[in-house]
Amino acid sequence: MREVTIGEAARESGVKVTTIRFYEGRGLLPAPPRSDGGQRLYGADDIARLRFIRHARDLGFDMAALADLLDLAGHPDAPCDNADRLARDRLVDVRRRIDALRALESELERMITACQHDRVARCAVIESLADHAHCGGPHARLD
């Protein structure tokens, strides 16, 4: 079995070294064995798990969902209802964020269109930012 250092595991998985250590600390990746010199050594299963984690994070799964998905992946004969539920929950969240982005887009377009491009004293963008009552409708902050 081929084992690689944390740097090589990072290159092969696309996950930064510091993030690998973070995942180990959170229990998402088991603590690897160490070489005689004390270096962490990762095998193919560890790299596959890191790729799984990276892909799930790229899709926006939070840490709790990720832990559940990793647990499910470790039980290949189990029903996939929970994985489906986690993916559906993520889709609902994505759609909510898309709706919020569309509302933000509309508000920004309205502000720009209302601006007469004259002076800051009569600028619709500045007025809207200074007083929420000038906004055309509800919009949420996205972090």
TrEMBL record:
CDD domains cross-referenced by the UniProt entry: HTH_CadR-PbrR-like
Keyword vocabulary terms for this entry: DNA-binding, Transcription, Transcription regulation
Lineage: Bacteria, Pseudomonadati, Pseudomonadota, Alphaproteobacteria, Rhodobacterales
Pfam families: MerR_1
Domain HTH merR-type: 5-72
Molecular function per GO: DNA binding; DNA-binding transcription factor activity
The UniProt record lists the keyword Transcription: yes
Endoplasmic reticulum keyword on record: no
InterPro entries in the record: DNA-bd_dom_put_sf, MerR-type_HTH_dom, MerR_fam
Protein name (record): MerR family transcriptional regulator
Superkingdom as given in the UniProt entry: Bacteria
Classification via PANTHER family: HEAVY METAL-DEPENDENT TRANSCRIPTIONAL REGULATOR HI_0293-RELATED, REDOX-CYCLING DRUG-SENSING TRANSCRIPTIONAL ACTIVATOR SOXR
Gene3D superfamilies: 1.10.1660.10
